[in-house]
């Protein structure tokens, strides 16, 4: 495997991001979306994340193989110092360290953006994602039981939190 490059996503990356995400929508429980995104939806999602709320891509040998994002955690004003992370890596390249590089980059970007806490909401079926977040300083702060339903199954979500000043 070559070197993974993390860079800001551009509109030209939207189709690659959409393909990675839509695989998860259609086949996995990493997202609770049930309807695949159109290219227009993907571009709109990316454009909504500018400045401190941003989208990055992981590039390997010139190809987009994953993406990560920082999004507002909640809408109310008191939550403005917290963000939620999202990390998606192409399934055929899982467990090769790309997710770790991306999540590390997101934590640095969050700290550089002046945020205090990074939150992650991960289905409890995603043991690898939970382990990745734990390895980078996240702690489990709660379980939302049977909070979503996908593929005719009730799904629990692990709520994880990283206080950035504790990992610096």
Features:
alpha+beta; 35% strand; Aminopeptidase; 28% helix; 7-stranded mixed sheet; 168 residues; Acyl_CoA_acyltransferase; single chain
Q: Determine the N-to-C terminus distance.
A: 29 Å
Number of strands: 7
Which regions contain 5 or more consecutive residues with pLDDT less than 50? none
**Sheet with most strands:** 7 strands, mixed
Q: SSE order in H/E notation?
A: EHHEEEHEHEE
Number of discrete domains: 1
Identify the strand order in the major beta sheet.
1-2-3-4-5-7-6
Structural class: alpha+beta
Helical percentage = 25-40%
**CATH level 1 class label:** Alpha Beta
| Distinct helical segment count | 4
Instruction: Report Rg.
Output: 15 Å
The CATH homology group name: Gcn5-related N-acetyltransferase (GNAT)
The CATH architecture is 3-Layer(aba) Sandwich
Please characterize this protein's 3D structure:
- The protein is α+β, with helices and mostly antiparallel strands and 168 residues long.
- The chain has a single domain, classed as 3-Layer(aba) Sandwich (Aminopeptidase).
- 28% of the residues lie in helices and 35% in strands.
- It is built from four helices and seven strands.
- The chain has helices spanning 14-27, 39-47, 98-112, 127-135; strands at 4-8, 55-60, 63-72, 82-89, 117-123, 139-150, 153-163.
- It has a seven-stranded mixed β-sheet, sandwiched between helices.
- Helix 1 packs across helix 2.
- The radius of gyration is 15 Å and the shape is globular.
- 29% of the residues are buried.
- The mean pLDDT is 94.
- InterPro entries: Acyl_CoA_acyltransferase, GNAT_dom.
- One of its GO terms (molecular function) is acyltransferase activity, transferring groups other than amino-acyl groups.
- Pfam families: Acetyltransf_4 (PF13420).
């Amino acid at each position: 495997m070559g070197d993974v490059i993390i860079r800001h996503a551009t509109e030209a990356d939207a189709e690659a991001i959409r393909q990675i995400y839509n695989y998860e929508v259609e086949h996995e429980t990493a997202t609770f979306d049930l309807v695949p995104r159109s290219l227009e939806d993907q571009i709109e999602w990316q454009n909504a994340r500018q400045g401190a709320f941003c989208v990055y891509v992981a590039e390997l040998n010139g190809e987009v193989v994953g993406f990560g994002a920082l999004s507002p955690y909640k809408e109310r004003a008191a939550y403005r110092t917290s963000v939620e992370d999202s990390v998606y890596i192409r399934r055929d390249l899982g467990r090769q360290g790309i997710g770790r590089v991306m999540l590390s980059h997101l934590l640095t970007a969050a700290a550089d953006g002046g945020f205090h806490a990074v939150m992650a909401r991960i289905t409890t079926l995603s043991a690898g994602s939970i382990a990745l977040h734990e390895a980078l300083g996240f702690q489990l702060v709660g379980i939302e039981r049977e909070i979503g339903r996908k593929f005719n199954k009730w799904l629990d979500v692990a709520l994880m939190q990283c206080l950035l000043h504790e990992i610096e």
